Amino acid sequence: MGTLVGSQRIFSRLVKKRLISGLHHVSSGTAPPWAVRGMSVSNASPGFGLLFDIDGVLVRGRHPIPGAAEAFRKLLDRDGKLAVPVVFVTNAGNCLRQERSKELSQVLGVQISPDQVILSHGPLQMFPQFLEKCVLVSGQGPLEDVAKDLGFRNVVTIEAMRQAYPLLDMVDQSRRPRSGAAISVSLPAIEAVVLLGEPVRWETSLQLILDLLLSAGRPTEWSAPPPYPHIPILACNMDLLWMAEAKTPRFGHGTFLLCLETLYRKITGRELQYEALIGKPSPVTYNYAEQLILRQAMERGWRNPVRTLYAIGDNPMADIYGANLYNRFLQSRCRDSPGPHSCQSVLVCTGVYSYQGEVPSDPQESVTQTVFHGHRDFKFDPSLVEASHVVRDVGEALELILKKEGWRRSQES
Ligand SMILES: [Mg+2]
To answer: Transmembrane residues, as ranges (predicted)?
Structure first.
């Protein structure tokens, strides 16, 4: 791959440990799909899987994108069930996948299960060594429920830290303690920081997280020089910007990470390090998506091997970059591998990326963004933000994919 520093190292390490290929089947107690013997291959089974981004592809803010539900009908069998393996891969993270699957079911008019939804933090399950540790979680929404759903058993929130150490959060004068407050609750040493998504009151989170990094997890015990490497950080969602109802993009979690990295470097003179960087465009996330696709195919009894993944998204720097990067990995993977051989990127124009006038016929000319909005640890490679296909919307995307695959709904039923 060669374009990515931190996450490539992490990804390679995971592959080396055979966690990636084995984890899911170990945890579910099922055999991998290629282990099924004595089954004949049915031509009616789809030989491809679909990865849909959500915001900017299927919804924009709280509003469905016109035509998305109609487009999905092409994927249903006679019983109204999805007839191809589908996962929804989003960098959103401040909610539970159960909530997101309910919203999607309503928007698309088809039953979507929580197991088909990959939020930015879903692939944290690939790092089981942290599940028993005492971790600080940063973000907003039902943080403790999200952490519990992921398998973390010993979680401390920023708010709990504020209460335990009332003298640390001093930027907002109205929230300072009135008199000389002492430590009110005793917390164990924090062993890792899990950044689930963008928090509110950034100054509080930045201050308290830095306190942990500079003190080996005991924020009242700063040492000079500060310990390095610092305690592990696992970060989900690197998007600098995202598209909501406003006409211009909004701050994403990547902006928060940029602030944290900049402050850490300014204060210590050293680089902040990540144990894991997940969410698109990280290959860890795409590998997790591949596992869920293969599991769906196996559970539905589709015997054709899934050879091609199609990733449909609106953000060149997250969806397209990630899909193309994973495609490089798949191409370098042994051709005898039973899994997919390619991952094609499909860029829609209903979100972050929007076309001016006609859709360009040459994808090489389709990306006009020249400022690199990707994460520090993902080096800019112009070829990775060039989509395999550029289409107007998700309807056109599905039309193109189904035509390429020669797949019709009637084949399934
Ligand atoms: Mg999007």
So the answer is: none
